[in-house]
Amino acid sequence: MTKNIVLKPGKRLRIFVGEAQEWQGKPLSRALLELAQQHGVAGATVWKGVEGFGPGHHLSTDRLPDIADNLPVIIEIVESDERLAQLLPYLDGMLQQGMMTLSPVEVVQAGRDL
Known about the structure:
22% of the residues lie in helices and 43% in strands. By secondary structure, the chain is an alpha+beta fold. The strands form 3 sheets. It has a 4-stranded antiparallel β-sheet with strand order 4-7-1-8, covered by helices on one side.
């Protein structure tokens, strides 16, 4: 049984927000996932942080329940340059507070369904 492996260039987009942030009545992380899905992104993952702080330097941590009100969340998308370029204007409109990073990656696709 032989697997096919394909390497191709892409970009990794990471979006850093707080879990309490919302967009049109739903969690912002969920709204961002739905947006990515609607734009045909191959996949996206939401990572929930256990500690962190943002520009205001307010520490959020799950170790102390009284300050666990807005834990950090990272939405990660790996996709082609072209598809991410189409998505960025929508993201810019949805993020009232947060940060995005864009890094070059080499996408390794393995398996039969290429």
